[in-house]
Amino acid sequence: DAKTTQPPSMDCAEGRAANLPCNHSTISGNEYVYWYRQIHSQGPQYIIHGLKNNETNEMASLIITEDRKSSTLILPHATLRDTAVYYCIVRGSRNTGGFKTIFGAGTRLFVKA
Amino acid sequence: GAVVSQHPSWVICKSGTSVKIECRSLDFQATTMFWYRQFPKQSLMLMATSNEGSKATYEQGVEKDKFLINHASLTLSTLTVTSAHPEDSSFYICSARDRGFTEAFFGQGTRLTVV
Description:
Chain A is built from no helices and 9 strands. Chain A is mostly beta strands. In chain B, the strands form 2 sheets. In chain B, strands 2, 4, 5, 6, 9, 10 and 11 form a 7-stranded mixed beta sheet that branches. Chain B has a 4-stranded antiparallel beta sheet with strand order 1-3-8-7, with no helix packed on it. In chain B, 37% of the residues are buried. The mean pLDDT of chain B is 92. The chains are: A mainly beta, B mainly beta.
């Protein structure tokens, strides 16, 4: 699996957008970008994933650069409950057999009132 | 999303005893399950991958005789920490996926404390 680089921590004001960057310069053509988050003492929660197009769901938006070497997770209106560690993961699809999810250090997001 | 349940949520055991942790997929068939360990203020570390009906594949440095994994059915995998010691105290997390899903779903974790 390709490695990812994320800032160790970020702050965000409640109600503002939180933009979490991730670098994955060694990503290969069949690898997806996944985002998970882990709230303290809980299991990770899936947020969103994408291959090359931007994606949006009820939780967040994922912006992937055209060269796919970096991406940004956007929480449009952060709340205090969004305080968590956010993990950016690059992984193969089920068809390629690269399905192990290997976690890096992640970004600790603090949403402040 | 699909639901993965772990039991127990927390357990305290005496040094030298064995502890079993269960991971169940409640509304789907989990062809593959993954077990992770997480120490305080650290990221999740993958311990092993298990496929239903076959032996688990352990990551480098994980003792297979100490961490016994059984994935006997499509909805249940168990992790048994044998002869537990205080250094085995950790947060253990499972995840499960079915071949029809693009992502794996995680359990809520089990906090093990060995005294």
